[in-house]
Amino acid sequence: MKLITAIIQPHALQSVTDSLREYGVTGLTVTEVAGYGRQGGHTEVYRGAEYTIDTIPKIKVEVLALETDEPAIIDLILASSRSGRIGDGKIWTTDVSSVVRVRTGERGADAL
To answer: Which residues carry this modification: O-UMP-tyrosine (predicted)?
Structure first.
């Protein structure tokens, strides 16, 4: 099993979740996060004073999936979140050794 983690722009969330739902993903976790990559932060002016914002709001989407579904899910996230501009985000995967559904006690693929 794999944990697929994607950091995306906030405006891309609806498109990503719709694509994943159409593919058959039955669950995901969404977290509001902040960070920066190559684009760094940005400066803003408030009441005449300029200040630097070091982090930019992003969305983290996490999906537990079977290894066989990993490439398709990555491609879906990529296609539905890419704008071609700097700051679109990153996608990475992590191996998951075990999963347990708390409600039923199911383990492994049955818990997905």
So the answer is: 51
